[in-house]
Design a protein that fits this description.
mainly alpha; 5 helices
Length: 101
């Protein structure tokens, strides 16, 4: 644990910025010799970098899945326009079970 007396207001600012603008600021901090060796900044910077990478991965996967779902919904819309019945996995049975369709 870092002694709080050694932590400057500049350290606190850079640590906070690392979380808010992750993963960009953590990468910049790793390039700054005077910042990357400060124990308080280093600890927060590493965590913020990993969190930022995880955030980007989860966002990409989620957006990718939503994009694919949108194209599938376009296909189902086309099928409906053609006068065909569409069976949506899980959802069709749920809707029928509720008596909504």
């Amino acid at each position: 644990m870092t002694d709080m007396q050694d932590v400057t207001s500049d350290d606190k600012l850079w640590a906070a910025l690392a979380y808010v603008f992750s993963p960009l600021v953590p990468v910049i901090i790793f390039l700054m010799e005077d910042k990357k060796n400060r124990p308080f900044i280093r600890a927060h910077n590493a965590q913020a970098l990993v969190l930022g990478i995880v955030y980007i991965i989860l966002t990409s996967v989620t957006v990718g899945c939503l994009g694919i779902l949108w194209f599938v919904m376009l296909y189902w819309a086309y099928q409906a326009y053609q006068g065909k019945t569409v069976e949506v996995p899980v959802i069709s049975n749920f809707v029928k079970g509720q008596g909504w369709a």
